[in-house]
């Protein structure tokens, strides 16, 4: 399998709305880059660090690759919602991937994750481009604020989980 792969199965040409919002967040984690990448690039760990995730699986099973689809059930205020994303870019050498929401309220939205070393620690950089088809675009300022807040809490949880593992010798 080549270390870099990319797929373009959607975007504006596939009937998605133009980009409505962009969010950038990052977190510093006092763990080696390889440890953070191994943990973060395994979708089975999503339930441990994403506070609203109650179930996560992916197909095909095994290591993620371009074309892998991740199915996540998220808890919301009113109901549990299924979201599906497809990995559209993956570079194990650079420790980076992109995914696009294919099923869910924000279909067509993309997220990019990058894991980079700094000193003896790691920085995780996340860039989101949120899109909303149809009339949902009028709710985007609220959705972006909520998404930014939720993502910041998730990244803080990721940091806590990984740094706690260091304290336990894992």
Give an overview of the whole structure.
It is a single chain. By secondary structure, this protein is an alpha+beta fold. Strands 1, 2, 3, 4, 5, 6, 7 and 8 form an eight-stranded antiparallel β-sheet that branches. A hairpin with a 2-residue loop joins strand 7 and strand 8. The longest helix has 28 residues.
Beta content comes to: 35-45%
How big is the Rg? 16 Å
Task: Show unreliable segments.
Answer: 1-14
Number of helices: 3
User: What is the terminal separation in angstroms?
Assistant: 29 Å
Could you give the order of the helices and strands?
Answer: EEHHEEEEEEH
- Helix percentage range: 10-25%
Tell me the overall shape. Answer: globular
Describe the largest sheet. Answer: 8 strands, antiparallel
Helix and strand composition category: alpha+beta
List how many beta strands DSSP finds.
8
Let me know the average pLDDT.
Answer: 86
Provide a quick synopsis of the model.
By secondary structure, the protein is of the alpha+beta class. 24% of the residues lie in helices and 38% in strands.
């Amino acid at each position: 399998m080549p270390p870099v792969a990319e797929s373009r199965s959607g975007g504006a040409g596939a009937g998605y709305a133009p980009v409505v919002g962009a969010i950038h967040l990052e977190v510093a984690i006092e763990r080696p880059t390889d440890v953070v990448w191994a943990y973060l690039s395994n979708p089975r760990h999503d339930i441990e660090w994403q506070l609203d995730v109650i179930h996560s699986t992916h197909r095909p099973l095994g290591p993620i690759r371009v074309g892998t689809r991740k199915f996540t059930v998220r808890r919301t205020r009113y109901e549990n919602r299924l979201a599906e994303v497809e990995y559209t870019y993956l570079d194990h050498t650079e420790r980076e991937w992109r995914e696009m929401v294919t099923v869910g309220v924000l279909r067509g939205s993309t997220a990019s994750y990058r894991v980079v070393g700094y000193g003896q620690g790691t920085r995780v950089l996340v860039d989101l481009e949120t899109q909303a088809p149809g009339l949902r675009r009028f709710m985007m300022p609220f959705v972006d604020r909520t998404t930014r807040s939720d993502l910041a809490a998730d990244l803080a949880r990721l940091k806590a989980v990984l740094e706690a593992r260091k304290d336990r010798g894992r």
